Amino acid sequence: MKRIAAKMLVTPSGIMADPIVTIEGEHILEISTRSAQQTAHIDYDFPDRTLTPGLLDIHFHGIAGQDVMNAFHEGFEDIAHSLARVGVSRFLPTTVTASLDATMLALERMADYIHADPIAGTSQAAGIHIEGPFLSHAKRGMHSAEHLLSPSPELLDQLWEAARGNIRLMTIAPELPGALETIKHATALGIRSSMGHSMATRAEAIAGIKSGIVSATHTFNAMRAFDHREPGILGVVLDQEDLYADLICDGYHVAPEAVRLWLKAKGQERAILITDCLSAAGMPNGKYMTGETVVHVEGDACRTDTGVLAGSVIALDRAVSNLSKTARAELHTAVRLASINPARMLGLPESLVPGALADFNVYDAEGVRRECFIRGSLIE
């Protein structure tokens, strides 16, 4: 049994002062206050620091040279180790559009890793996010045009079976023929649907929401531009109060003004931070593979051979820090967007509550992440 004390604790229900978190094995046994346990033995004391939930990246393609579309078990172990060291305790390996055969094989390998026994001190794959093949040709971004497919419940069933029921999130363009039926089928399977890579009009986006869409993928990017007479998908995303909306806060994908508008529109209950992180994250400038696509990295920018902006090369702790600076968001708000909100959108168990896995980060008074605990163990 371990007891960890701090100045503050960020939980799904709010902020708690002078917390003591008691851990038994890999789980949180109890959360109390220092005043209630003045004489209790403390194993780790952080008197000027804040405990926050472990981060959850729901849109993640790779890191440290490992790409989830091409990784085998050892590659996923490397990914999970790398993520734990940047405070990410859970993630969704995310596909990119590829041939159907390649996608099926990638889903099978992802499922194999999810069902394997977790290694101590590593991030947990909490399901799979399929980004493609149900995307708009006009807004496909870096995704391969030749491998985009029309959505159908039957094709989704094939992907679901290859993933052995581990798909938790699906990005889809709601205007595509067959999309609404596929969204309804995804909901019946327990898959959350997110609209993105889309040229949807206002009416098409609303129809998608009525069919079961609960979120939006990388807001502003790969979306029909806003117009005051036809607000399109973007206008609906920012206006609909119950809709979650995620965003890449890396300084390249979205301008600071747009980041602040997004946060004002969605608020701290429905905004979600993602990375769209590629295998080049943590690597030097150069050429890397994402699925079957070559990407070029220079600094923090990543582009395809044709110059299209691809995913990011930052980890989720950087996104939290960037949001705090860009939108002047307090630490508890920025962290919530990268942990509590994505978990609630996906229907995953809450963090930093009794009975939950003991996954949390430790931030100093300046808002810098200093330590990470994964399943009760301090990550060195």
Please provide a written account of the structure:
The chain is built from 10 helices and 22 strands. The longest helix is centred in the first third of the chain and has 16 residues. A hairpin with a 2-residue loop joins strand 17 and strand 18. The chain folds into 2 domains: 74 residues, Urease, subunit C, domain 1; 292 residues, Metal-dependent hydrolases (TIM Barrel), CATH 3.20.20.140. Strands 1, 2, 3, 4, 5, 20, 21 and 22 form an 8-stranded mixed beta sheet that branches. The chain has a 4-stranded parallel beta sheet with strand order 11-12-13-14. Strands 6-9-10 form a 3-stranded parallel beta sheet. It starts with a strand and ends with a strand. The chain is α/β, with parallel strands linked by helices and 380 residues long.
Which keywords apply here?
single chain; 380 residues; Urease, subunit C, domain 1; TIM Barrel; 4-stranded parallel β-sheet; 10 helices; 28% helix
Task: Give the arrangement of secondary structure elements.
Layout: E1 2-11, E2 14-17, E3 19-24, E4 27-33, E5 44-53, E6 55-60, E7 62-63, E8 66-67, H1 73-84, E9 88-93, H2 100-115, E10 124-125, E11 128-131, H3 153-162, E12 167-172, H4 179-189, E13 192-195, H5 202-211, E14 213-216, H6 232-239, E15 245-248, H7 256-270, E16 271-274, E17 286-290, E18 293-298, E19 301-304, H8 316-326, H9 331-337, H10 340-346, E20 360-363, E21 369-374, E22 377-378
Parallel strand pairs: 1-5, 6-9, 9-10, 11-12, 12-13, 13-14, 15-16
Antiparallel strand pairs: 1-2, 1-3, 3-4, 5-20, 7-8, 17-18, 18-19, 20-21, 21-22
Helix pairs in contact: 5-6, 8-9
